Amino acid sequence: MRTDISYVHGLKCRECGRSYQKEPIHVCEYCFGPLEVVYNYDGIKNILSRDVIEKRPCNMWRYRELLPIDTDPKVGKDVGFTPFIRAHNLGEVLGIENLYIKNDSVNHPTLSFKDRVVATAITKAIEFGYDTVACASTGNLANSVAALSAEGGVKSYIFIPADLENSKILGTLIYGTNLIGIKGNYDDVNRLCSEIAANYHWAFVNITIRPYYGDGSKTFGYEIAEQLGWKVPDNVVVPVAGSSLITKIWKAFKEFEMLGFIDRVNTKIFAAQASGCSPVTTAIKEGRNFIKPVKPNTIAKSIAIGNPADGYYGIKTVKESGGYGEDVTDEEIVEGIKLLAQTEGIFTETAGGVTVAVTKKLTEQGRIKKNELTVISITGNGLKTQEAVAKSVGSPVIIEPRLKSFQERFEELDSEDVKLRR
Ligand SMILES: Cc1ncc(COP(=O)(O)O)c(C=O)c1O
Ligand SMILES: [Zn+2]
To answer: Which domains does the chain carry?
Structure first.
């Protein structure tokens, strides 16, 4: 694979179009619009093809020219190329014939899609000469920044709401980071981090170098298209927090179309949120193109962002693609987690429960049709949010270590098999 060749021209304001150098900046100094990375697509066309990509190792760097790094990846060399599964059983329950799951619950190394954005961001931070990275996180980002900064040998400061799930906290501390729990919700954390970012020379992956960070998510979309045999689905359902992932999946499909790797994109993008924090899906339902911030109150903590940084663009993506937005209650989220586990053997976290439950709802509404090729985005692992389902899975049958003891219970268990699998 090529090294030290960049296909990045620079940055551009998404609102006024003003150009900027490739620097660790994220907002336009004229209109405060967010900046995005501009690629040299003509140059990329000359070097990248479906054939070239297919011959490369199975990780996210097989799309390297479409990522905003100038050198070889510094961390997370095995991130990405996660399983893409034909979900017959779940499809049968939901009444969708052609259902697939993109399964980032087993992404390397920290079991969520965040490893894609963080591997990109930390590589970029090291390229920019930073020795310290930081982030504001709802949990998964914290795990990933802690792990990949350890691998990259850079210091890290991680800011989270103090009341996150135990596994997300422990799964951050273990890497030897500086973890700061804030007494407040994610939006409080984010606000404080913007102030800290102005006072410390750190690369805040999802603030100061956000344009580079976000593009790591494009690989989730590239992989869906490649794993489908170089085509895009009719529908993709995506869990939404800050609204970065949803916009980047759309960008990925559009780039592949422009590069001629796939035919015309005709995909509907659906946003999935928890009813206890649904600023994006509520705006979509009400036909607004702006966000009304909310105070989060849901078990889906990983996507509990009341004032999403890219919310406006999330709404825009959904509208442009002809999709829709739906949200589900905490009870429906738990049912969604259990349904995926009991049909496909995949244990997802609360965000995945949201996506499954929203897909069910959209199908019942007729917005997703029986014969349409539909992809459910599973972005995180259930072992990290066990609290959410702990009271809804029953408990083991305890017996004495004797055959008789088992036999006594067996008949009862056999007749109650369904209950056992509750
Ligand atoms: C598991 C999971 N899925 C989805 C998302 C949503 O990502 P975004 O903030 O890009 O909308 C997050 C964000 O933290 C997450 O942790
Ligand atoms: Zn601007």
So the answer is: 8-77+114-213 (3.40.50.1100), 84-111+217-388 (3.40.50.1100), 391-420 (no CATH)
